Amino acid sequence: RHELGDNEIGRKIMHYFRVDSTNGVALKLVGEGAPHGTVVVAEEQIAGRGRFDRTWYSEKSSGIYVSVILRPALPPSTAPILTLMAAVAAHQAISTSTGLPVDIRWPNDLLVDGKKVCGILTEMNAEVDRLNAVVLGIGINVNHSEMPSELNTVATSLKIEGGRPYSRAHILVALLKELERKYHLLLDEGGVAIARRWTAASTYATGKRIRVASNSGGFQATTVCLEPNGALRVRRDDGREESLVSGAIIEVK
Amino acid sequence: RHELGDNEIGRKIMHYFRVDSTNGVALKLVGEGAPHGTVVVAEEQIAGRGRFDRTWYSEKSSGIYVSVILRPALPPSTAPILTLMAAVAAHQAISTSTGLPVDIRWPNDLLVDGKKVCGILTEMNAEVDRLNAVVLGIGINVNHSEMPSELNTVATSLKIEGGRPYSRAHILVALLKELERKYHLLLDEGGVAIARRWTAASTYATGKRIRVASNSGGFQATTVCLEPNGALRVRRDDGREESLVSGAIIEVK
What we know:
Low-confidence stretches of chain A: none
Radius of gyration of chain A: 17 Å
Oligomer: homodimer
Strand content of chain A: 25-35%
CATH superfamily of the largest domain in chain A: Bira Bifunctional Protein, Domain 2
Distance between the termini of chain A: 44 Å
CATH class of the largest domain in chain A: Alpha Beta
Order of helices and strands of chain A: EHEEHEEEEHHHEEEEE
Largest interface: A-B, 26 and 26 residues
Structural class of chain A: alpha+beta
Shape of chain A: globular
Strand order of the largest sheet of chain A: 1-2-3-7-6-5-4
């Protein structure tokens, strides 16, 4: 799209009507050598995927279902900060396009009024010491008039929250431009610059009461800060601090 | 092959005459959902790949060119020890099949008489906090009568070193059985068990004078030990110690 100017991200956009999942298509393109900045967009995903093998509800022509291929010359250990970078970019794009108050729940769920409007699934193809490609899959609930009943306590759409429809094309262009900016910010200034932006955008960064899910039952804690590698530092109620590098948290009210 | 008994690794073996690279084929199969233990074997690779974008010389029907798909429920940070596990398995398979004295150069080159007979390229498909699949690509120079002139100071074959040809099928079966054993050892006892086996098999583990290649020019050091995560601990000549997590080293004589 000409609105993207000299953006590397989106120089090549592949548009599909129906796919299993945009990340699946993108990973296949990675194997075929697709260059940095290749973007896969679909109107509908019949097997949209989220983290932890969850599905992503992908109502036809209502949401943005996009995957972006990046080829950074970085080690695999930087993948967490790349996914937080995507959260910061999506936060900025949705905020400026809609004016809605958007929050980020660690690591990278975007919430409006405490409900999810955007999810991010990062997958990578790597050697042991080198990322070959990162695929950022981003799903945004834009013009859904209502969410399925099993989701409507935890998920919402921009239209439901804003009371009006929004242009998907406009939000997508804003998203791709923001990804380009934040990607270069990360390369130029490192993870600390991304962590600072994330901290400014998220109420979960500091002083939030949360519950950490875990195989051994989970625990409650208070957030301390986001570290430059993307880990969330938390303080347990007995005073011990630890850094969460993966997993899921929920707010405790 | 029936000789593999109830090995999970090799339950499905796909044999090709000519491929670009066995890892490329395996990564494509990963995307299509190929199960743990799927094995890709080729008679010839026309674009065989090694680490650092190097090529792997793959003379037709003379070597073993194999890729193994593993699907461990482990985080991406365990990939280095998985690749060392492959080196230990290949070391054992080649030693017992040929009786030749095999060494391992960190992280995972197999040497006979100081020259390379086997290389390993590990690639992975992962989410930020979870390995989806690991592809272990293993190339072994078996029955090459001579190596190309540009390689013959750094590479050799089992036949050149042993003075007789060896059965590729026999070595491959031994390799797949050893991979199965060492994989379960890793899952059951952790990286420390693999590090111990690696240390017993490699003259590079302790007290070896090496040169570390680096973008900023490199330096000389003496090896101290292999850590359970796969990093090589070294002592610089000024006494400072550090852990190498990736890269390449050479012996200093």
